[in-house]
């Protein structure tokens, strides 16, 4: 093809425009390690679009998720609340249908969902992995739950302490939730919604063997609510999956293999938090020897992006060590070890006891760890 001069000039100009627009379109990975046997997928199972009371077109949700390093999202527009229905016809499947191809292009898994939006009790429930969301439009909430359950959906309770329904912000368990649990419909609870952590929900997940979720519930464009360019992030459900597919996510959710990542906090069962910790914190042993009450420096390197806030949980004979210390995400800090003047010459390995206060295995109870460190002592 012959290219004339004006076309060539135009092409160069257009290339400039395209590259200008392409600038900043990049994906930032969420740096949390996999655990033995499972991939750690980063997911958000609660968000809205213009097809309910959201402010964005559905495919934008896939783009935001791709940029923020997510593996999977569920689009969960309200069934019962559509303030834009004078402009957009009611079609409960449409937001998913628009978001899905965008997700396919970007390799972000998009899951069909809906928010069953009722007064408390039972409050708001999300049903994801639906086949036909329109079947959830029913008069009675029990019929909506049944329609979701009949489709094999994963159903969870949203924001149980939401001040719109619980003005004091305290989540309460009602007979209706017992009913849903006993009939096998209720499988999980949002322990975190937006920036709220619900300790009651955390406790219920442990006691009643429910799946923990952490979701954004975004309505506006993501970066209006979360300063993602300043290191902020939306709440994320960590899903420990056998494979990075929709089926992999579904299987892990039904089998309770999740943890919560919100702000600077991780919440989850010890069986998940401990292997993440072991693959995140690296202790670089000190060089040199302690003489008398002298000191040496180890270093702690955090290979995950989640800060590790350590609080001493005991003492050992022979050395003292920091009472409190935070290792920021992806950073290394110095770790001072002092002699107590009681050790003889030679090398000793200590197991220094700590609690990770921002990695919660129960409400207000951090993960207990021991940092093994070899220290050499000189003859005093
Ligand atoms: Zn809701
Ligand atoms: Zn919602």
What does this structure look like?
The protein is of the alpha/beta class. It has two domains: 24-263, Metal-dependent hydrolases (TIM Barrel, Alpha-Beta Barrel), CATH 3.20.20.140; 281-377, Immunoglobulins (Immunoglobulin-like), CATH 2.60.40. Helices cover 24% and strands 32% of the residues. The chain has a 16-stranded mixed sheet that branches. Strands 12-14-18-16 form a four-stranded antiparallel sheet. Helix 2 packs parallel to helix 3. The N and C termini lie far apart (85 Å). One zinc ion is lined by residues 46, 48, 115, 217.
Task: Record keyword descriptors for this entry.
380 residues, alpha/beta, TIM Barrel, Immunoglobulin-like, 16-stranded mixed beta sheet, 9 helices, 24% helix, binds zinc ion
Bound chemical compounds: zinc ion
CATH class of the largest domain: Alpha Beta
End-to-end Cα distance, whole Å, is 85 Å
Radius of gyration: 25 Å
Q: Would you tell me which CATH topology of the largest domain applies?
A: TIM Barrel
Gross morphology: elongated
CATH superfamily of the largest domain: Metal-dependent hydrolases
Q: Summarize this, please?
A:
The chain has 380 residues and is α/β, with parallel strands linked by helices. The chain contains 9 helices and 20 strands. The radius of gyration is 25 Å and the shape is elongated.
List the helices and strands and how they pair.
Elements: H1 5-22, E1 39-44, H2 58-67, E2 72-78, H3 94-106, E3 109-117, E4 124-128, H4 141-150, E5 154-157, H5 175-182, E6 186-193, E7 196-197, H6 199-207, E8 211-215, H7 222-225, E9 236-241, H8 246-254, E10 258-262, E11 265-267, H9 270-280, E12 281-284, E13 289-290, E14 295-302, E15 308-312, E16 319-320, E17 324-327, E18 332-339, E19 346-362, E20 365-377
Bound molecules: zinc ion (2 copies).
């Amino acid at each position: 093809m012959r290219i004339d001069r004006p076309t060539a000039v135009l092409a160069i100009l257009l290339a400039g425009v395209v590259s200008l627009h392409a600038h900043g379109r990049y994906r930032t990975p969420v740096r949390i390690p996999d655990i033995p046997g499972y991939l750690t997928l980063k997911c958000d199972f609660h968000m809205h679009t213009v097809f309910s009371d959201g402010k964005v077109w559905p495919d934008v949700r896939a783009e935001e998720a791709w940029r923020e390093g997510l593996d999977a999202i569920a689009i969960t527009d309200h069934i019962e609340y559509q303030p834009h229905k004078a402009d957009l016809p009611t079609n409960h499947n449409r937001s998913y249908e628009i978001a899905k191809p965008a997700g396919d292009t970007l390799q972000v898994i998009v899951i069909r969902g809906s928010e069953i939006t009722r007064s408390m009790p039972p409050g708001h429930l999300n049903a994801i992995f639906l086949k036909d969301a329109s079947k959830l439009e029913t008069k009675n909430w029990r019929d909506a739950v049944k329609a979701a359950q009949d489709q094999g959906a994963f159903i969870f309770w949203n924001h149980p302490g939401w001040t719109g329904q619980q003005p004091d912000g305290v989540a309460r368990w009602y007979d209706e939730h017992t009913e849903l649990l006993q009939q096998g419909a209720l499988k999980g609870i949002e322990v975190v919604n937006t920036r709220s952590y619900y300790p009651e929900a955390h406790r219920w997940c442990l006691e009643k063997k429910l799946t923990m979720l952490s979701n954004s519930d975004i309505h506006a464009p993501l970066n209006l609510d979360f300063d993602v360019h300043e290191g902020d992030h939306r709440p994320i459900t960590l899903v420990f999956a056998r494979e990075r597919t929709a089926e992999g996510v579904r299987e892990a959710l039904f089998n309770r293999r999740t943890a919560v990542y919100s702000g600077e906090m991780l919440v989850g069962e010890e069986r998940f938090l401990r292997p993440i910790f072991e693959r995140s914190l690296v202790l670089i042993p000190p060089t040199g020897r302690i003489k008398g009450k002298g000191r040496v420096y180890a270093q702690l390197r955090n290979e995950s992006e989640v800060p590790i806030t350590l609080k001493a949980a005991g003492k050992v004979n022979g050395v003292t060590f920091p009472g409190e210390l935070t290792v920021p995400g992806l950073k290394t800090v110095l770790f001072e070890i002092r002699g107590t003047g009681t050790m003889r010459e030679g090398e000793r390995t200590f197991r220094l006891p700590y609690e990770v206060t921002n990695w919660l295995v129960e409400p207000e109870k951090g993960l207990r760890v021991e940092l093994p460190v070899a220290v050499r002592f000189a003859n005093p």
